[in-house]
Amino acid sequence: MLFNRRYCNKLLIERANGISLPIIANFLCSNSGKAVQREEMARTPKTVVLLLHHGQPRTLFYAREYLTKSTSDFFKIPKWLAATLINSTWRFTSKTRRAVMNYKEDKALNGIIEKYSISLEKCLNEVIPEFGPISCKYAFLYENPNVNDTITKLIRNGMDRIVFVPLYPNYSCFQTGFLLNAAVKTIRNITVALPESVETNDSHRITPMSGVSFDCSVVDRWGTHPAAICFWLDHLNGKSRFFDSVLFVAPRLYLYNAKEYEREVWSNCQRIMDHLDNKVWCLAWYSGWDQWMVPFSESISSQLQFLQKHGRFHTVVVPINTILPTFDSESILPYLLQKMEVDLAHPVDFSLTFLHAFAELIKNHLLGRPSSAQLSIFCKYCFDKNCVSTREILTNRYSKSMFHTIAL
């Protein structure tokens, strides 16, 4: 029945056919309420893909804040002590200040990731509509939008599943691990797991006093996936005839099971070289924009000397651990290589090849491919209880009693 204003007034005045005011009001309210409810359900994403990254500061002021938070997390010290340390050594951080001052708006990390997230969302909704509507968001650990606020908002709006995707191809506890710990900590503060008598899977979360419940999972490492391999092959195949060797470079990480990170980087390099025609290659390390300059073996200069010693003078340098233009690829590496006759392969702002391969990676995960079994392994000397919580929620390979035994 269609009610216009004139007809409603007539009904209200004459109560035609015995229909009373409460009945009319209930009819109108129920229909409008259902329409609003349907509209809200259409807007609520069924699956959320959350891209995670540490972020990059925009100015020197934010650089100090970034380094303070990072130092506090790395050394497990209070922020006031970390701030004191950063302020007292700030004049010795010429590398960091140079990288931030060379910052370009067209290379803004959040703008590049946002472009990828929009395209990825459209691609996933077309490829796997059965999991839709799919929403793709991004968050940073030390910048805005930050991980805590973003996840809190997503839970408040409601969803059926959230997939965490760190934008670091090779797993490291300091990069990927810290991101996952921060995300899981927020989830644990807001939600609870089902009682053990009902469900033993901690990845299914419920928001108390609310109708929101969801599953969470992670794509924790993808350095050897075709998404990362094809990204660099697109750069190298076209100019392979112009170079006789490849020097892969990656930031040197310390502590936090750094040896596993180094093995993964090496494996990534080997996968790429399997597709190139008999090229000599080496792996070198450098200190990133947010790290102290520390001397170590297998540096960029020493590895280039090694290649030249064996008659390889046409070398291309590949920053293997990033697929996004960062301070390292746009400032630190050009500065280190300025007096060396080599070609630096810069990550492009946007790659359709990488986008499609990355969408395939997430599609396979949504269709049932689990996270890496390595995620369930603790660092040899790990004492961080947040790591226990992360593995309880994002993996289901061991019993809770075993996790608690390891934590103790």
From TrEMBL:
Gene Ontology process terms (BP): heme biosynthetic process
Pfam families hit by this protein: Ferrochelatase (PF00762)
Source domain of life: Eukaryota
GO cellular component, as recorded: mitochondrion
MF terms in GO: ferrochelatase activity
Similarity remark: Belongs to the ferrochelatase family.
Name used for this protein in its record: Ferrochelatase
Taxonomy of the source species: Eukaryota, Metazoa, Ecdysozoa, Nematoda, Chromadorea
